[in-house]
Design goal:
Blueprint (H helix, E strand, L loop, with lengths): L1 E6 L2 E4 L4 E9 L7 E6 L6 E6 L6 E3 L7 E6 L4 E6 L8 E7 L14 E2 L3 E6 L1
Parallel strand pairs: 2-11
Antiparallel strand pairs: 1-3, 3-8, 4-5, 4-9, 5-6, 7-8, 9-10, 9-11
Length: 124
């Protein structure tokens, strides 16, 4: 089994920055692609960013392109999401996910392993 645990959420003012981390443990050799999703109150969970096994290919949801950066330290089994120029509409619970398939995965049904989520709140 694989476990993933997010950290780094919190309260920040509009225009500020946060860095989320996701630590994977267990059978980490099973992990190839990883990603971040978010769920705002009253909305469905949506894709934010994804990255392949080697870290050389990423994908982003349109509204975060140019503001968020996904990266990973493969040797440390750690995934990051650097979030800059945050907006109130970025307020959500952010989830880390891991998948056995490689490539960049953008759909939540492609991910087998999920964290519990970390709250990000952006005040105006």
């Amino acid at each position: 089994q694989v476990q993933v645990v997010e950290s780094g959420g919190g309260l920040v003012q509009s225009g500020g920055s946060l860095r989320l981390s996701c630590a994977a443990s267990g059978l980490t050799n099973n992990i190839n692609s990883m990603g971040w999703f978010r769920q705002a109150p009253g909305k469905e969970r949506e894709f934010v960013a994804g990255i392949n096994r080697s870290g050389n290919t990423q994908a982003y949801e349109d509204s975060v392109t140019g503001r968020f950066t996904i990266s990973r330290e493969y040797a440390k089994n750690t995934l990051y999401l650097q979030m800059n120029r945050l907006k109130p509409e970025d307020t959500a619970v952010y989830y880390c996910a891991a998948a056995g398939r490689n490539g960049v995965r953008t759909h939540e049904d492609e991910y087998e392993y999920w964290g519990q989520g970390t709250q990000v709140t952006v005040s105006s």
